[in-house]
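INFO  loader      accepted 1 record
INFO  loader      residues=543
INFO  predictor   begin
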Amino acid sequence: MAGFLDKERIIAGPGFNRWLVPPAALAIHLCIGMAYGFSVFWLPLSKALGIKEAIKCGPEVGFWAELFTTSCDWKISTLGWMYTLFFVLLGSSAALWGGWLERVGPRKAGVVSALCWCGGMLLSALGVYLHQFWLMIVGSGVIGGVGLGLGYISPVSTLIKWFPDRRGMATGMAIMGFGGGAMIGSPLAADLMKYFATPTNVGVAQTFVVMAVVYFVFMMGGALTYRVPETGWKPAGWTPPPAQVNNAMITQRHVHVKKVWGIPQFWLVWMVLCMNVSAGIGVIGMSSPMLQEVFGGTLIGVSQKFGELDKTQLAAIAAVAAGFTALLSLFNIGGRFFWASLSDKLGRKLTYVVFFVLGGVMYFSVPGSAAAGNIVLFVGAFCVILSMYGGGFATVPAYLADLFGTQMVGAIHGRLLTAWATAGILGPVVVNYMREYQLGLGIPREQVYNQTMYILVGMLVIGLVCNLLVKPVADKYFMTPDELAHEKRLAHEKAAASEVGSSGVVDDHAVSPVWVALAWVAVGLPLTWGIYRTLLSVAKFFN
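INFO  predictor   done
INFO  writer      dumping tokens
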């Protein structure tokens, strides 16, 4: 089995169709992207014992006791720690094992990711069955978080090497899948819980089991489809741009991952990603209550403010806000592909300049459009903001490849994802605590987000300055020819695919277009279904 997963076994032969690799990456990213949608489980899990009404824990049951209690239901705030662990472990595991991934290849990393992510869900199912939250923390939070990190970066280096002519588009396709995972997983989970629910069971444990099995099939299919190009491969008819001519920011040399902590450009790009994500992720978490509190009864055609609405009216505006959240998710996903592809034309640095300047203008406009009661401008601003939030994730791997070379870009990207882990804490803290602080001062609900928007503008200004300071990496940081040759040997790279054939590996040289089409259908159908379900929610907003 170990031999089957070795990197030498997945070097593509002549005639291999590189368009088979993006759907393999999508198969993995669409599954692990469900991390964004795990909040669909919080409400049912908060009533796992009481079923209709939660059995509340007494004041003597603190957080640590709640991990082991079997006599009362978990609070939603406690369940939210699993979501936090997802992104902390994603960043830290990608940083820790990124170098290992580069050496063993995407197939082995993808298989380990599938085992961790799906195994973690099975352990969480046991935790729900036994009502032991610590099992869910260890299962999905820790083990699943490791699977998230490895699965997220597993295709990055491979896609960049297969698409040197369109780096942004290639990584945009895969990372679009991570944003789309919740679009498929959330309605699927809701349907499954509804199917499995009984008068004595909320159906979450069974849903975890079914989703783990389905995800395992898709993720293994993606991992086993991965292929890497032979050393020196390039698309037919494409010539690498001469260094320092077409774009001084694109290097033809390579930096070792162990050196990046000491390179100024790495930390500048780290701050660029952290500020872009912090601003966006804080808004994502509060988008629904923000729309409801700012516009209140206007959302359903009545003049009352949020605090003056009755229970029926609150339920009605909550449905409208759910449609707003769904609309934002579409722009988040679409932006990943659009902006990353556009960066192939504009260059990565200029693309991030657009993110920070246009994003700053959008955030700055929000208080004005809210005060004027202009829902169209308010919603439009956040749609653009979320498209650039997703675009920032999808563009950064290509930015790193431009600056540091392609040999270890997956490992370097893994270390950069610590910026995401930081932003996952910083962004929500700023938005949530500023809201509470403003409410404590007695500021009306429709105005509590104004100062927050200006703080987010400040974050984008910091990101803009850092991006403008990014320059080509100094020669002293690049690997020498001998160091590069040594690293290639460690990464089990071969000079030509024929060497693989001579070692007895059966390689699929010319892949039939039919197989490529089927691979795209396999990932396209669930993605289309997810978009359809999301559009049904969006329709509530426009109605």
